[in-house]
Amino acid sequence: MAAQDNSSTDGVGPGRPGARLSRRIFLAGSTGLAGSIGAAPAAADSLADVPPRAPGADLGAHSERSKYVRIDRIPEAGPGMRNVDPDNAINAKTPHQQLFGTITPTDLHYERSHAGVPDIDPAQHRLLIHGMVDKPLVLNVDDLKAMPSVSRVVFIECTGNGWENWRKADPDLTVQHTHGLISTNEWTGVSLRFLVDLVGKQRGSNWMLAEGGDGAGVDRSIPLTEEILDEAFVAYGQNGEPLRPAHGFPMRLIMPGFEGNLHIKWLRRLKFADQPWMTRWETARYTQLLPSGKARQFQLRMETNSVITSPSGTMKIRPGYNRVSGFAWSGHGSIARVEISTDGAKSWKVAQLNHPVLPKAQTRFQIDWVWDGKPTRIVSRSTDDKGNTQPDRSHFIAQNGTNALFHYSAQQTWSIDEAGRVSNVLA
């Protein structure tokens, strides 16, 4: 195991003496950042060059981003099939390198569709709940809105997140390419347990089929564990507004901590039974080919993971002070600890976790780093409150092989050359 160094002054963490980012390090190591400020004292000490105040634009029906800000998702048709015509895309990836905090803007939440986005009139949409229940029900959106609601901030992650690095590392990839299939939003809806109690699920009914209203007819068998009954819900709200069509309008299933394909969009049916349905989505599609040649089914939970978003692929840094930042997440619970190595995993320092640290949601982390200008590699690893630690690539591949496609959770390494150029590499 690599040596661990948690005493350095540029390593910070909750409850430790260096928990706040060091102002001394920020200034002392400022050849890159603060030094550039000092080089232009007039600009820093006065407003002489700032344009004068002027009347602003009129109020509108909704707010737009500044014309000086350009943030876009990347359409993708599969591993290595990037920047394709949107008509041929199956994914659209979140630009994490351009975002702050943990909540993904609604219009930048990643998208994964199997047959395009259906145009559903909520007045005509219905949710059928039936099977091994005492009282089958058909509900509309207004019925759900009239019920007790829950709101929760959780991540949704496509099982294909990270698939770019299964076999090789393209050095020109950004973190949007490698990890753009995860996003975190606040979702609002009705607890699954409330709906289960409403219809009277029968004894022995320990599986649920969730079916969407899209053209592909996506449906998945879901085991009714106590965790899922307590935490899953049918959502109609997203970041304080109705769901966007690309994300399941008018209603979708939210399954905190579980793979994105289970968060069925455009939800129209929940059916209860005593065994899984073995649909094509859990036999031919979302299975995992193992080194033994066998395939794993029902690998439903997303594992403990993390990624440095700044500095990350295709960025460029300067010697001196740099702030290393990223986010971590776990389908098992809350992130308890993130460690960062700035010397290629030879030593590790504890990072600061930004609050709030929520279960099954992305958590932002950061650390001070003074780069000496020499080539190096940076990498993060996370540990959750259940003791699960993100594996390095060698251990991950030894267990999972290179023929799989889903649930990639190995540590992400970025290489930095003598010119400060950051590129994607396999550790």
Describe the structure.
- With 427 residues, this protein is mainly beta.
- The chain has 2 domains: 23-33 and 301-425, Immunoglobulin-like; 111-279, Oxidoreductase, molybdopterin-binding domain (Sulfite Oxidase, Chain A, domain 2, Alpha-Beta Complex).
- 11% of the residues lie in helices and 29% in strands.
- It has helices at 23-28, 34-38, 41-45, 141-145, 175-179, 192-199, 226-231, 393-400, and strands at residues 74-78, 81-82, 91-93, 111-112, 127-131, 137-139, 150-157, 182-191, 207-212, 219-223, 233-238, 241-242, 252-254, 267-273, 288-289, 295-296, 305-310, 320-329, 335-341, 349-350, 352-353, 363-371, 376-384, 413-416, 422-425.
- The strands form 6 sheets. Strands 6-5-14-9-10 form a 5-stranded mixed sheet. Strands 7, 8, 11, 12 and 13 form a 5-stranded antiparallel sheet that branches.
- The chain starts with 22 loop residues before the first helix and ends with a strand.
- 40% of the residues are buried.
CA(first)-CA(last) distance? 15 Å
Radius of gyration: 23 Å
Q: Any idea of the CATH topology of the largest domain?
A: Sulfite Oxidase, Chain A, domain 2
Could you state the CATH homologous superfamily of the largest domain? Oxidoreductase, molybdopterin-binding domain
For the biggest β-sheet, the strand order reads 6-5-14-9-10
- What amount of the residues lies in strands? 25-35%
Low-confidence stretches: 1-19, 31-43
Quote the average pLDDT: 90
